[in-house]
Inverse folding.
């Protein structure tokens, strides 16, 4: 064996992968389309190999598959409230908000938009402050960093 084994997340889009790739390219500042396959000119792509913030995906564009559900989500660790707001607003513009930073894009894929600053509150050595942050988080849809402070 000359190449190491790799791991990519496989996503089966129900016929709307091209629109999803366009949205992801517009929304995520580090989106790369590595390759795609289209056996029929003039038709949507059949597969695409792409990455978002360095995480590799294989997308397949085929109607009739199982719909996405909340059993799996993609977690975005972002720096600061402005980036939380930007990504949350983009994803929920045609998607839907959830709880504790989770939201679903218009294609049915679930994301969690989590500020990296959140962990300092949830893992605060002062147990009362950590408990306060956890209780505040449980009441949030979009995560608001300043609301994690006592």
């Amino acid at each position: 064996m000359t190449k190491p084994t790799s791991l990519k997340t496989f996503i089966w889009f129900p016929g709307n992968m091209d629109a999803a790739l366009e949205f992801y390219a517009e929304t995520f500042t580090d989106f790369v389309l590595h390759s795609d396959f289209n056996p029929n000119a003039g038709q949507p792509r059949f597969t695409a190999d792409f990455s978002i913030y360095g995480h590799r995906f294989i997308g397949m564009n085929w109607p009739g598959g199982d719909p996405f559900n909340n059993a799996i989500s993609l977690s975005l660790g972002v720096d600061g409230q402005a980036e939380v707001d930007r990504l949350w607003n983009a994803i929920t513009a045609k998607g839907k908000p959830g709880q504790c930073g989770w939201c679903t894009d218009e294609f049915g894929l679930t994301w969690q938009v989590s500020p990296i600053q959140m962990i300092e509150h949830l893992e605060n050595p002062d147990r009362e402050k950590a408990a306060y942050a956890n209780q505040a988080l449980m009441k949030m849809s979009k995560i608001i960093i300043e609301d994690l402070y006592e």
Summary: Helices lie at 17-27, 81-93, 118-122, 127-138.
